[in-house]
Amino acid sequence: MPGRREAGLLEARRLIADGIDPGDQARLHKIADRIAASDSANLVAAEWLEKVRLAGLPAIFLQI
Q1: Whole-angstrom Cα distance, residue 4 to residue 15?
Q2: How far is residue 41's CA from residue 44's CA, in Å, rounded to a whole number?
Q3: Angle 22-55/4-17 helices, nearest 10 degrees?
Q4: What letter does residue 59 receive in the DSSP assignment?
Q5: Taking the chain (64 residues) in consecutive chunks of 10 residues, what is each chunk's mean pLDDT?
Q6: Angstrom distance (rounded) from CA 49 to CA 62
Q7: pTM (2 decimals)?
Q8: What pLDDT score does 63 carry?
Q9: Residue 22 and residue 10 in contact, taking contact as beta carbons nearer than 8 Å
């Protein structure tokens, strides 16, 4: 069973064999992770604002 480092090397070799630059692939994964995190934060904020609106709290809570 390969270790973590060896598994990463094997994956990089597979990507290269498929004509994919492992560095580009890693950058794409980082960008996708940032987008997912941003979407999650926006979703939480939208849910909170909706709860505030439904609770009938003062408008000061709804100003951005």
Answers
A1: 17
A2: 5
A3: 110
A4: G
A5: 83 92 91 85 84 77 60
A6: 7
A7: 0.55
A8: 60
A9: no
- Element (DSSP H or E) covering residue 22: helix 22-55
**Predicted pLDDT of residue 45:** 83
Q: Which two tokens stand for residue 35?
A: 């987008």
Contact, 21 vs 34, CB < 8 A? Answer: no
Supply the pLDDT for residue 64: 58
Q: Which pLDDT score is estimated for 38?
A: 82
Structure tokens belonging to residue 3: 């270790």
Given a contact cutoff of 8 angstroms between Cβ atoms, the answer to whether 52 and 62 are in contact is yes
The per-residue pLDDT for 39 is: 83
What's the start-to-end Cα distance of the chain, in Å?
Answer: 53
User: CA geometry: angle at 25 spanning 23 and 29, to 5°?
Assistant: 115
The candidate with the shortest Cα–Cα distance to 12, out of 24, 60, 3, 1, is 24
